[in-house]
Amino acid sequence: MPRLAAAPITLSASEQTELETLARRPSTAQQIALRARIILRASRGESHGQISRDLGISKDMSRLWRNRWLEVSVRGIPVMERLRDAPRPGAPATFSLEQITQLYALACAPPEQYGRPISHWTPRELADELVKQGIVAQISERHVGRLLAEAELKPHQSRYWLHPPRQ
Prior knowledge:
Helices cover 53% and strands 0% of the residues. It is mainly alpha-helical.
């Protein structure tokens, strides 16, 4: 069975120059520089096997970047953008930045201000208060704990509790 030749890549002079610059510049991320080298070699008519041997990569990687380059070149995307990773699939964020900011503000406020008879906030109490105030429809205490840990917020060590204001 005859093999199919790889699709040819034709570069404009500006694309060629930009790819060569990216491939040589020391400050370019290594993955971007490697992808630039793959495209440059593909534009010279090298096969996937030849590119993979010379650059120490798999044929699949050579094929992937040649095909991706051809696919996005049609859209007129800038060279650097064509060499970046494609967006990965996944669920959209569950909570907005505003909702998370409101959680942080709540965690830094004294619980008595919200009628809570506790000395400091716990993830469970914060989750309950967020739902009670209508900031979120629902949120687990574990997620509240993760968000606080991510922001390195520790309501029980809040400055307010270490040095309460005098009245």
